[in-house]
Amino acid sequence: MKTVMILGGTKGVGKEILKSSLEKGYNVSFCGRNMDEGNQVIAALGAPERMYFHELDLNSLGEIENFYNETIKKFKTIDALILYAGITPVASIIDTEEAVFDSIFDINLKAPYFLLKYVLKSMMETGSGSIVFFGSAHMDYGEIDRAPYALSKSTLYTLSNHIAHHYAKYGIRSNYLVMGWTNTEGELQLRAKEGVSERSLQDKAKNIIPMGRMLNTADPVPAVMYLISDDSAMTTGSLLRITGGEYI
Q1: Which overall architecture, per CATH, does domain 3-180+217-241 show?
Q2: What is the pLDDT of residues 174-186, one digit of tens each?
Q3: pTM of the model
């Protein structure tokens, strides 16, 4: 039985991946900032013996190590790692505060980097593993008000390729999934603060996204399930765009 570890998993696409993994019969380890939320997810999905939730502040390297240790303690191995969690503050180069810059890189890059430090060692020991990075259409150059976010996502692409090149000899695969504009809870909350309703957002998306709509939280899941399955045994170093044709 495979064990899937998700950086995130209580909301949005991460939660959909968690549900699909359980449906496949996999064990799932996931994390979030709120223990009550994690317990609610476990209770709602009805498979507590195959789930582990770790309360985690992504700024804490000690807790990131504990997340790994507790996952191994419960499930023995980690067969797939989904690096989903991240933040998307509004900031152009000319108005980025140091604290905002640091927070983006601490959560979007530093946290997954140090989780990988531990997970890669485990996968090397077992001789297999699949890592899926969640990227963004901002990775190429990004909107003008997402400068540090765009840089963090571009750097993750380099990290994915680094792992694909150097760790394939251990049976480890690494792929980068570019997720387009998606109606996640975080996106809707961000737009609400700007005074933009979900209906207005969807109307705007029709004119921006070639395929005529935003992604929903289920759209990226089939690709993720393929990348963590044995069907993708020779797929590594890939970039897969699920963006509805949108490029930024």
Answers
A1: 3-Layer(aba) Sandwich (3.40)
A2: 999 999 888 777 6
A3: 0.93
